[in-house]
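hey m, so remember when u said the tokens were messed up on ur end? i reran from scratch. heres the input so u can diff it against urs
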Amino acid sequence: MKKEKVVLAYSGGLDTSIILKWLIEDGNYDVISVCVDVGQSEDFVEIQKKAFKTGAIKSYVVDVKEEFIKEYVYKGIKAGAIYEDDYLLGTAYARPLISKVLVEIAKKEDVMFIAHGATGKGNDQVRFEASIKALCSEIKVIAPWRIWSLNSREALIDYAKKYDIEIDATKENIYSRDENLFHISHEGGNLENPQNEHKEDIYKWCVMPEKGKNMVEKVIISFEKGIPTAINHNKLPPVQIIENLNKVGSTHGVGVIDIVENRLIGMKSRGVYETPAGTIIFEAHKALEKLVLDRNTISFKRIVAQKYSELIYDGLWFTPLKNSLDSFIDATQEKVTGDVVLSLYKGNVRAVASTSPYSLYSEEYVTFGKDEVFNQFDAEGFINIFTIPIKLQVKVDSKEIEAKLNLA
């Protein structure tokens, strides 16, 4: 009987290595492995070799780093999307793009099954499957973590030994990590108890903030329509901007957070995230928006940013609302062009100066010195009109108090 084929989202790590073998042994599938390069520091030649050694009939490695930054990360930066005031959404940006690649290869290979390694407790299962359904609703998804008997990473390690599958994870070093060009995350292990401080050896990119350079470093970020285009006036393509700022930020311990977040699935989880470039860019972008956007736009955009971050976190990238919000956000970014100077030191990044041809800041108006443009007497009439609701309320309250006194 002819075997069904399945496209597997494959990283070569513990989970997907076991899943590849499990799909062959327990599912009786022919497996096509797909490793999507979103900037993780891996030897992709070795990953392909490992896939074939584990039993894959075909293996793809697809480089989408530039698309990842330009079409996913930069959209979130323009939006100002930060989930629950902390998380810069590094993992969440990659999932819809990875899903798009999986669907494209499934169509190319005439395959109706896609498998992923996300657990039944996490957000990624929703992100993958919502994206897959949006792009091709006919494709069926296999999620081994929801159906197999291997109920822990310790069990996976034992399974790997049984089938002689090479893995890096051990029962002592059992952090679950996700890495791409924009960030690296760490979950599991001793982080599962929020009473535990995370250990210094968890870091892969950054130094501990207190061990950052003993000197302030200034960096200039240039933007065009809300998108970073240059570092210290040196124009660079998107991937190089992120790579360079990751290097600069990591030496200062910038972009490290240890947070408890609310998962979409309904539980809280704890993660340590390293996002040096993203932290620098977000701070610069926020400062530039304050210079060029009016008060009402900034205020409303904060509401949009919160909703946008929730859509991304929840895996609703390919949806009408997200597309509509993109249109609004792009309109707000037309004049978000200029330079921002940032100061980096011991885990902190601060915007210390900014300039833009579209700046709404007028020294002539705000000066404490003599000016020829602002008649301060006009403020009296404005305040009288502005405070009409307050005065009316006071009148009503006074009548109520007087009535109560008369009754007494």
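this time it looks ok to me. The first strand starts at residue 5 and ends at 9. if urs says something different then somethings off w ur setup not the seq
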